[in-house]
Structure formats: structure tokens, C-alpha cells
Design brief:
This protein is an alpha+beta fold. The protein has two domains: 131 residues, no CATH class; 141 residues, no CATH class. The chain is 62% helix and 13% strand. It has ten helices and nine strands. The strands form four sheets. A three-stranded antiparallel β-sheet has the order 6-7-9. It has a two-stranded antiparallel sheet with strand order 1-2. α3 crosses α4.
Length: 336
């Protein structure tokens, strides 16, 4: 037996899934519709242009007739009659000619204008949808950064810095010899220790996993790397100080400015991610972290793992900051 209720439920589900798919691809759909209507506008514009010269020729002809001071007509008897026009009548006829020509032009280009308007509407809708999605992604990204920051702080408090570094950079097992305090016997035990910078960098997918916050400062990645720990440490300190001063004076800095300062290749993410004044901790490149202990102990030719403590998307943070400042100004103005 046919169940109408079940059929309706299935139809509703199918329609809902179809709407979801349409919503997912709505920017592409609006882009296609915008391009199609734009093409229609171009074609209709070409066709309208063919009538343009005819309208102008007709206008000039009718304008000459409207400006004529004497009109020659034939009466019922077939005799020629000359009628003089007043200036007022001539002006009225001229206005009528211009009005008629304007109407003809509007009609001629109406379809082109309508298609252009519809095309602009589709492009605007596509832009608005993409803007909304980008804002949502930026908000989620900022929220994820806050979550990770809080997680790291709590992990350090609960498990200690060494445990946190092993979670962050990975770890390895090493065999160590320890003396038993009770028996004095030397016992070999396996102990987990965090990876150093060179071991971490050797992982093939570390750059993919850790996005743009991490970077390698070494002879392979930077022309400014000397291989002498004391010189390289000074270069890192100067670069970090330069970005700190930029944020303090200008109000913001992006990761690519730090990368260029260190002789590293700029990245796509580095164009927008960075630091904004009063939106997070002081600028840090993370070169003093324990993963770089060999470098900090002045071993030469050691690669340095950098971790830029970025605040987030600079443009979004500046926008949020401006909104907060305007809100505070409004509140203070209302309380005054």
C-alpha cells in the first residue's frame, strides 16, 4: 500500500539534500549566472548598437523639420499653403523630438542595461557569500588558536615543560644508564626525550602539519644563515627586535616581513598572518625554545626551528580592533 506520509518524508529529505548541495556551490552558480548574463548583455549591446545610427539619423531629420519656421502643406483643394510657426511652437516641437529620441534610446538599450544589472546582482551575491564564509573561517581559526593556546598552558601546568615539548615536537626513546641509589648498581633504562631541532626538521611532513607558524633557519633555507651560532643568534635577536618595533610603532606586522628579515622565502599564509598591537603577547620567533638547545649551547652549523607566535589574521584583527574602539567611543560618548 502506498504510504503518502513516508513518500512525503523521502521527498522532503531529497529536497533538503538538494538545497544543501545548491547552497554549497552557490558561489560557483552565481558566478556562472553572472558570466552568462554578462555575455547576454554584450550580445544585446552589439545588436542595439546597430540601431544607434538609425536613431541618430531619424533624430536629425525630425529635428530639422521641428526647427522649420515655415511649414508647407496642401489643403483639400490641392493648393500649397505656407504656415509660419511661432518661436514657442518651434521650441515645443524641438523638445518633443528630443523626448521621443530619448525614449527610443532607452528602449534600444533597455535589455542591455537590465542584463548588466542582473549580472552585477549575481556577482554581488557571490561576493557576499564568499565574504561570509571567509569571516566564518577566520572566526573558527581564531577560536582554534585560543583553544590551542589554553591547552598548551594547562598542559605545561599539569605535566611540566618537558612533557609539553614532547607532545609538541615529538619524542624518541633513548637508553640511559642510571645508578640505583639503594644498591649502587648501574641499570640501563629506556627514557623518552623530546626531539631536537634537526630531528624535528627531518620529518618529511612537518611543514605541511604545522602550517606557517614554524620555519627552518638553516643554510638550506636562508642566505643570511652563517653557520656560526653566535652570529646567527645575533641575527635572530635583531630580526625579532625589528618586528617588535614595527608592531609597537606601526601597530601591526605580518609573518612575511619576519621571514624576509631572516632571508627566508615568503609564503601565502605569511601575507595575512602576523601580529597586531595589544592583540596578543609580544612578538617571539621561538628560537630560545628547548628544541634548539644545541644551537643555544653555541654548537655551529645547527639548524634552528622557529615558531612565530602569531596573533592571527592581521586584517581581521585590525577590523575587530577598530570596531571595539568605535564601540568604546560610542559608550563613553553616551556616558558623558
Amino acid at each position: 500500500m502506498f504510504d503518502l506520509k513516508e513518500f512525503g518524508s523521502v521527498v522532503t529529505e531529497k529536497v533538503g539534500m538538494a538545497r544543501l548541495k545548491v547552497s554549497k556551490f552557490s558561489p560557483e552558480i552565481f558566478l556562472g549566472l553572472g558570466l552568462a548574463t554578462m555575455a547576454g548583455a554584450v550580445i544585446s549591446g552589439i545588436m542595439a548598437a546597430r540601431n544607434h545610427d538609425d536613431i541618430i539619423a531619424s533624430h536629425n531629420e525630425r529635428l530639422e523639420e521641428a526647427k522649420a519656421e515655415v511649414v508647407v502643406t496642401e489643403n483639400e483643394e490641392g493648393k500649397t499653403v505656407e504656415t509660419e510657426r511661432s518661436e514657442k511652437e518651434i521650441a515645443k516641437n524641438v523638445r518633443k523630438v528630443y523626448f521621443d529620441t530619448g525614449v527610443k534610446f532607452v528602449r534600444n538599450y533597455a535589455l542591455t542595461g537590465a542584463l548588466m544589472g542582473v549580472s552585477a546582482f549575481f556577482f554581488c551575491e557571490m561576493h557576499n557569500i564568499q565574504n561570509g564564509r571567509i569571516a566564518g573561517i577566520s572566526g573558527a581559526y581564531t577560536g582554534l588558536q585560543e583553544y590551542i593556546k589554553r591547552y598548551e598552558e594547562n598542559n605545561i601546568k599539569l605535566n611540566g615543560k618537558e612533557s609539553h615539548n614532547m607532545c609538541k615536537y615529538g619524542f624518541k626513546e633513548v637508553e640511559v644508564e642510571e645508578e640505583d641509589p639503594d644498591t649502587g648498581e648501574v641499570v640501563k633504562e629506556k627514557k623518552k626525550v623530546p626531539l631536537n631541532a634537526e630531528e624535528f626538521i627531518q620529518q618529511k611532513d612537518w611543514q605541511t602539519k604545522f602550517h606557517d607558524q614554524f620555519a627552518e633557519f638553516s643554510r638550506q633555507t636562508s642566505a643570511k644563515y652563517e653557520g656560526r651560532a653566535s652570529f646567527d643568534l645575533m641575527a635572530l635577536e635583531n630580526a625579532e627586535k625589528h618586528i617588535q618595533n614595527l608592531v609597537a610603532s606601526r601597530g601591526w606586522a605580518v609573518v612575511n616581513e619576519a621571514r624576509i628579515e631572516l632571508g627566508l622565502e615568503p609564503t601565502k599564509e605569511g601575507m595575512v598572518e602576523g601580529w597586531v598591537k595589544h592583540c596578543g603577547p609580544d612578538v617571539s620567533f621561538g628560537y630560545k625554545d628547548s628544541v634548539n638547545n644545541r644551537f643555544l649551547a653555541c654548537f655551529d652549523n645547527e639548524p634552528v626551528l622557529l615558531e612565530f607566535n602569531i596573533h592571527g589574521n592581521v586584517y581581521d584583527l585590525l577590523t575587530m580592533k577598530e570596531r571595539k574602539e568605535r564601540a568604546m567611543t560610542f559608550i563613553q560618548g553616551g556616558n558623558a
